[in-house]
Design brief:
About 80% of the residues lie in helices and about 0% in strands. It has about 425 residues and is an all-alpha fold.
Length: about 425
């Protein structure tokens, strides 16, 4: 009922109803009741005209934060965990005071337990839980909350990455946000003092770096794809605007009447007989196409096309923004790892990079060259050491430092795939 705007507003306007709903989190322990109660809170927090009153009551409640943590940590219901994760995620994202109240080591432990219950595979609940840890990282001072449960958080995130990235080629469709959350958390795990403990985890379990290399390549492919789609969308938008601006009497030259059905049939016969020249064929086809476009404009189909084009532009903009956020998080992760390694000393991390696919390695080094040149210097210093055997890494450094690569242009095979 609360999903209906009027009903949701009526429920929210009643202070007594709001208080009863929040008290139900204290008084009831049966899962079905809690699922429906938390679902109501999710809906009311998601609606702009009902959110403020609920926020005010939640901030007054002395038990709400503890109730949310307890459910995440102890519930065995995936539906209940999903609802509570959604509530906590929304609250931490929109209210700084509540975000600070939630950002404790106890919440981190509760999220880890909740994640174990819903499973380390992609789901709405898992994405909300990981985003909660990201918000804890950006709120808690020195990432101390994550550091206290460093091993549990690291294992949780790497297992989740395994479910998304353990394949020959990673695709980013609808995964950019959750992958960005994962590497934001891993960066915090590495940075949290003592950083040696974070590096030890990375060296013992290299999957985080292996998956990050695959994601760097996937980002390159995604940026190329978005660049192509953006150009085509712009071209289509310009063409649509041109056709919409034309008037019916000016669209078609009176002296060159559009090709009617009979004329096109005759032209088809001439094609079969081989009597139609290339210029005549182009003229007939061109006038027929102009007629179709003019009719589409007259019938309002061009307006529909404009609306579709606007929707496409928004979608492209969102995808581009998500991809760039992921790119920054991957860059930040590699920067933190590489700069935390002992200077001019061999590490399993360098050995892993040296054994990686050359294309992955080249893309990583270009990413670091653009965003973290100090990492290039650190890598070069280790690669230059005798006895390290980092021949592939040295060659890749030379290649990247002597070439400048921009976003590749389209090729015919990729055009066909699109």
């Amino acid at each position: 009922m609360a999903c209906c705007k009027g009903v949701g507003s009526q429920i929210t306007d009643s202070e007594g109803v709001r208080q009863v709903v929040l008290l139900m989190l204290d008084a009831y322990s049966d899962t079905p009741t809690l699922v429906e109660t938390t679902r109501l809170i999710v809906v009311c927090l998601s609606t702009e005209n009902t959110r403020e009153l609920w926020l005010a009551d939640i901030k007054k409640s002395k038990t709400f934060v503890e109730n949310m943590r307890f459910i995440l940590q102890s519930s065995t219901s995936s539906d209940l965990i999903k609802n509570v994760a959604n509530i906590v995620d929304q609250l931490m994202d929109i209210e700084e005071e509540i975000c600070s109240a939630f950002s404790t080591p106890e919440l981190v432990l509760a999220v880890v337990e909740g994640m174990k219950q819903v499973g380390v595979v992609w789901s709405e609940a898992a994405e909300s839980l990981l985003h909660i840890l990201t918000l804890v990282r950006t709120t808690a001072e020195d990432s101390s909350c994550l550091a206290l449960h460093r091993e549990s958080v690291f294992s949780l995130v790497t297992d989740f990455l395994h479910s998304l990235c353990d394949c020959a080629m990673v695709t980013l469709e609808s995964k950019e946000t959750v992958l960005a959350s994962c590497y934001c958390i891993l960066s915090a795990v590495v940075m949290a003092p003592p950083s040696d403990d974070g590096i030890e985890l990375i060296e013992q379990n290299s999957s985080a770096i292996t998956f990050a290399l695959k994601i760097v390549e996937a980002i390159r492919q995604q940026r190329r794809r978005l660049s192509r789609l953006s150009r085509r969308s712009e071209e289509h938008k310009k063409l649509t605007e041109t056709l919409t601006a034309r008037q019916p009497h000016s669209t078609i030259n009176v002296s060159e009447k559009p090709a009617n059905s009979e004329e096109r049939v005759n032209a088809a016969d001439k094609r079969v007989d081989g009597d139609l020249s290339a210029s005549e064929e182009s003229d007939v086809d061109g006038r027929a196409r102009t007629e179709r476009l003019a009719k589409a404009s007259d019938n309002g189909q061009a307006d529909d096309s404009c609306q579709a084009d606007d929707s496409c532009q928004r979608s492209l903009s969102d995808s581009t923004e998500s991809t760039e956020i992921l790119r920054e998080q991957i860059l930040d992760f590699f920067r933190n790892v590489l700069l935390a390694l002992p200077k001019e000393q061999m590490s399993p991390v360098y050995a892993l990079l040296n054994s990686s696919k050359s294309s992955y390695l080249h893309q990583l080094l270009r990413l670091l060259q653009d965003g973290a040149p100090e990492c290039i210097s650190a890598i070069a210093a280790v690669a230059a050491l005798r006895g390290t055997g980092l021949h592939a890494l040295r060659d890749a450094l030379k290649h990247v430092q002597t070439t400048k690569v921009s976003l590749p242009e389209d090729n015919k095979e990729e055009e066909k795939q699109l």
